[in-house]
Automatic annotation (TrEMBL):
Keywords, sorted A to Z: Membrane, Transmembrane, Transmembrane helix
Name this polypeptide is given: EAL domain-containing protein
Keyword Thylakoid: no
KW S-adenosyl-L-methionine (keyword) present: no
PANTHER family named among the record's database cross-references: CYCLIC DI-GMP PHOSPHODIESTERASE PDEF, OXYGEN SENSOR PROTEIN DOSP
Residue ranges crossing the lipid bilayer per the database entry: 27-50, 57-76, 96-121, 128-148, 160-185, 197-218, 224-243
Domain EAL: 613-866
Lineage, uppermost ranks: Bacteria, Bacillati, Actinomycetota, Actinomycetes, Pseudonocardiales
Domain GGDEF residues, every copy: 467-605
Amino acid sequence: MPDHHGQTTEPQAEAQNWPSEEAPNRLFLAFSVLVLVSAVVTAGLLSWWLPQPADQSVWVGLLLALGFLLAEQLAINVDVRTGVSWSITFCEIPLVIGLFVAPFEVVLAAHLLAGVGTLLIRRVQDRILYNAGAMVFEICAAFAVATWLNNVLDGIAPSWTGVVAGALAAPLSSTLLALVCVRILGRRMRVGAAARLFLRTLVLGLVNASVGVVGYQVAVHAEWGWPLLVLALSGLGALYIAYSGLLREQRDLEALSEVSLMVARSGHQAAARPSLGVADPTDGADVSDADEWQVIADRVKDQLGAARVVLRLRFDPQSPLHVVVSGDDLPPETVDLDATGPRADALLRLPGAQVRHFRRVDSVPEIRQGLLRRGVDEALVVPLRSASHLLGVVEAHDKLSRWRGFGQADIRMIGTMASHLATSLDNRRLLATLRHDAYHDPLTGLLNRPGFRRTAGDLLRTRLDGADFAVLRIDLDVLPAVSDALGYAWSDRMIVAAGRRLRDALGPEVPLARLEGGAFAILLTDTDAEQAHEAADRLRRDLTAPYPVDRLTVEAGSVVGYAGPRTAESEQGAELDVDALLQRADVALRAARSSGEAVREYLPTMGQIFLRRFQLVTQFRQALETGQVKVHYQPKVALPSRQVLGVEALVRWRHPEFGKLDPDEFVPAVEAAGLVDALTGFVMDQSLQRVRKWLDRGLRISAAVNLSVRSLDDASFPERVAEALTRHGVPPELLTLELTESGVMADPQRALPVLRALHALGVVLAVDDFGTGYSSLAYLRQLPVDEVKIDKSFVLGMGTDLGDHAVVRSIVELGHSLGLTVVAEGVEDDLARDQLNAMGCDVAQGYLISRPLSESRLEAWLQARTTQARGMRDEMVLTLLT
């Protein structure tokens, strides 16, 4: 801001973007030249108009210059909360003396000498032209008003009236000039602010002028006036010192609060910026953050009145040094100085957190060399420390406003400010760390699910209209095997290595997240479906490359599913958020697993399939309770007697919305959802209830119930079977439990204890779909099974395929050799029945005998079989009698 000598006000809030000390604009420079030229012309005309006294003592001029200089150094700067800086000086007092005793030229020279000298001492070189012109205008206005008013009021008013008016005209003229400058530079200042500025200038100018007039009158006319004046000025000086101290404390408190708030606000903004998965919890200071720190450095510099303030900040031990300079340029060789390393500096090697005051005149050679390298005479240096480590260093170079340099008040101020700054910095780092941990995976340093949702969501909202994108879901396989063999630490290493491979392949700007386990998510922008497929395939190949683990090489597999916005729903205008895209990519990934593909794109039909499966799973328990799920029975007959030995219980579901459902559709979904125990219990209860009814009618017909592999993992399952048999009063031999060959042989050692417990109950155990798996004869001999069921695929092809015929014959012979009952499924014609009978097969089941029947239809079928059997027996008896 331009310096207005006398009492002035600097309107910073109303006139923002005022030319700064570091970079005055051309318009301000042109205005300054105009002001100075106009002031010189005005001074010349005024010097010609004013009467020329005979006495122009040089000593008077020097004493006035000393008075002006002292008044400039005793200025008080008041920082108003609204952003206005109010400078209170006492230049009106020496001006009043000059109006009484010295000619115009002498007062003008003294004022210029003191004012320009003060600016040079303070190194305010870019405003010298403007302030020199303002000083000339002040003296011109003072003498013009004083001379004119004395001529008008000659003999009417006391002689000091013109002096007081002239002393008031000086600061008012400089204030008016400042307002004109504000207007010319295109800045706005409200009328109310300008009025308050003039009022304050008038009041304080009047006080200073009155003090000057009273002091002069007392010194000249009163007896022993000089000692009395010295006594009064001493009291005023003490009052000034006390008032100045209070104002400084107020300014210091406001500055401390302001700096702390700025650091806290900067920390919130830095922590809120999205990251793409970099492990650094603070990520240093970016461009926008640097602006905040520049404002903080400027505020510290203004508060201390220093020529330069340097903030050397290290936001993280691994991050580079961040240097912020306010004021004079820092010599290049001193920019990256640090307290450690090859560029360690003596001024920065400070233990503790105390303020150090270094002066060139009384420092040791090492310190003196550090000051010389910075081009300064003195410096205040204070480290910023947290409880654990050094956060940075604050340097203040050369005091501007006082010749004596930095004082105790400045040392206390920078120490307290550094303490607040260190606390705010530490809180900022803690907040940034907490935010980083909230949005990043602790193992890989990549984004986690919330972080991916946030970062990808921001990118999708800001993308250009029509820009394609894709969300990829990648699963890394074989991790359980690695964990079982080598421990979880090695599987974690594989996840970290996989994340590093993906980051290297994608680059630092692509959002990449680890969701859970070996699952990763990626957002690709500006990519179409073909490019997304190529990228997915490339990333899958990168992940499946062998992983070196210790001295081993571990093979890994991966599956990729991806989804974009080009679906039927989005074409109809539906908004897709990140969660929806992740869910669709997951659906595509599961579809890829089901189909055996490595990469699969999401299609709307997939969503319908999985949505339907989800509905079936969530509605299954209700379907059991409301009777939607029923049990049908397919009879099994003995060969060759064709006697009904038993039935196989088969579940059927008639959905109110989807109609009749195929068991192959809902049973795997129910099993995957963990509801298979409820299904098994329901079928077993219904079957045992039916067997009990037959027993009550004198019929011994067994029921076969299919078991899930999950039942073989449940050690309590045999107890539940025993409880059900007891509850329904059914002998255990009338219950057959069927297990698939692949399910039993996948882990026979694990299934063996449950099978033995079931066998001990007397329950019949059967291996279903025999011949389609990978049975080991050694294990088959160890398993406590009673039956084998030949898969229907062999029985259906037996009449036309010699190979199927040979397989069926081999299974029959193998079963009999092991003492097992052999059951053939899929018997649909007489030829197959006759061939099985010729082979010695024990039991037949299939459409030739009967389709699966409901309870009522099964009873009718049994009734018909019983009637037919009675008719045949009666016919045989009649034949024998005849």
